[in-house]
Amino acid sequence: MAVVENQKKTLEEEDLRRKAAEAKKLNNAGVISYHNAQFEKALDLFQKAIDIDGEFTEGYNNLGLTWTELGEEEKATEAFKKAIELNPDLAATYNNLGYAFYRLGSYTEAIEMYNEAIGRSGDSGSAWTNLGNAYYKLERTEDAIDAWKKALDIDPSNEKAKRNLKRFHVEA
């Protein structure tokens, strides 16, 4: 009886590995489509990856990025929240969710998400830049300048932060 149970367990594990590999393959094809601005095709591929593996965090994150590109921030927000639910330690997803909130004009929520991203990965120049942008929208100019300076400390080639600071004639 134990032999049968072990075989069953082995087959189930193999099926899970096969599904994960197929989901990853579809996700990778979706990334290529995304980078070629074939967003509808990317959506389809990311959704298929998620349908195969409902716990595929990267698929949900990429689905959210694609919805953002298509101006569907509400759908993007749902996808990012699901990715965070599946893997609450993934800093990039908080940054992405913050950007969806930013595009919705929900700057306070965006700031919360950027701070989550920074808290989980303090060396994200992108999150610091985005944080500065959200502060700027709330007319918190000094906080914005500080965030952009921090972004440049992390990544001296960060053109967005440089451009934003130049607007205020501030040297990092």
Topology (SSEs and partners):
Elements: H1 2-35, H2 39-52, H3 57-69, H4 73-86, H5 91-103, H6 107-120, H7 125-137, H8 141-154, H9 159-167
| Count, helices | 9
| β-strand amount | under 5%
Give the overall pLDDT as a whole number.
93
Order of helices and strands: HHHHHHHHH
Structure class:
mainly alpha
Uncertain stretches of 5 or more adjacent residues = none
| Silhouette | elongated
> What portion of residues is helical?
over 70%
Quaternary assembly? single chain
Number of strands: 0
Termini Cα gap: 69 Å
Outline the biggest β-sheet. none
CA radius of gyration is 20 Å
Structure description:
The chain contains 9 helices and no strands. The chain has helices spanning 2-35, 39-52, 57-69, 73-86, 91-103, 107-120, 125-137, 141-154, 159-167. The longest helix is centred in the first third of the chain and has 34 residues, at 2-35. It is elongated and about 75 Å long.
